[in-house]
Amino acid sequence: MPIKTEKDVWEAMKRNDQLAEKLGFPPTVQIMLRLALEEAAVNSLEYGRGSSHEPVHLSWNVDNHTIRISLKQKGSRFCIGKKEEVNVSSCGRGLQLILNIMDKVWLDEKEGYVIFHMQKSCH
User: Fold this and answer.
1) C-alpha distances in angstroms, 1 versus 16, 70, 71, 91, 121?
2) Comparing C-alpha atoms, which of 78, 75, 57 is closest to residue 111?
3) Which of 66, 68, 76, 94 is the most exposed place for a label (fewest CB within 10 A)?
4) H-helix or E-strand spanning residue 2
5) What proportion of the chain, given as a percentage, has pLDDT over 90?
């Protein structure tokens, strides 16, 4: 699914909600998955396109009780490590939220693109 605008992000969040519900995630976890996707997609739009204005490519992989969300964007690897200190500024908390919501977060790089993967299992 190409993401070019905030409207596309809203459509992606609706699709994500449907998948999470179908997999049996509890409503509170569904909300957290929605938040993680929104943060990742908005960050990808803001930081990933560069001057080319290429869309961010969003995909889902669903297997048993696990959802994997992947966002492919123009760019290069960035740091995704958890931080112990508390960020009290008005920005820069999205990635830390994602890292605390999802079970697994990792990056792949391929030919000028970075692919941001997030995975959550329904326990």
Assistant:
1) 12, 10, 9, 27, 22
2) 75
3) 76
4) strand 2-3
5) 45
